Input
Amino acid sequence: MGAFGNVLIALLIIGGIALAIWYGRKRRKELTAWAASKGLSFSHLRDRTFDDRYHAFGCLRRGHSRYGYNFATGTWGSRQVTCFDYHYATGSGKNRHDYHFSGVLMRSDVRLQPLRIRPEGIFDKVTEFFGVDDIDFESAEFSRAFHVKAQEKRWAYDVLHVRTMEFLLGMPRMSIQFDDHDVMVWKNRRFKPEQFEQAIAVAEGILDRLPPYLIEQQASD
Output
């Protein structure tokens, strides 16, 4: 490759870095304004221990060079909420790829049990053919739309009753996971401010619809 080619590559790299810096600053400004309008605190600082504190969530354990950033935290209604961007990388050197996505964590007033809900994909249809199945529900529409996994099927059925299934079918499709104390809602891309609100609404809607008998059962346990 000649000198001109080397210069062109260098300019493209510099241009890519400059564009990434510009986009990062623009996003930070937008999220700062959004957080302030919702009474949330905002910090753009990177937190490299975020995955360790929430180790149950598989989406935070991908790749390497992991960190959370652009945190908007505070109280939403009666619950604690954390909105965040997240970064991880795969490969190294010329084969390194960096990924960013957004999520929301909402703290539950009730002790929870593990549960995973995500949009059904084409790959799920293939694995279903080989006997790797998820939990099916009485609602055929919900079973077609979502892939559900839980250690205890009874817990999945208790949480995802008719009203909750109808609610989720009417909301934007996102991935959802429970650990013992939190509900996480995320997508494999960065949210716009209004999409953070949609994700919060999904988490809030599920928790608000937990049946009274289930809440009592979890409290007694």
Q: What stands out?
A: Helices lie at 3-37, 50-53, 122-129, 140-145, 153-159, 162-169, 193-208, 212-220.
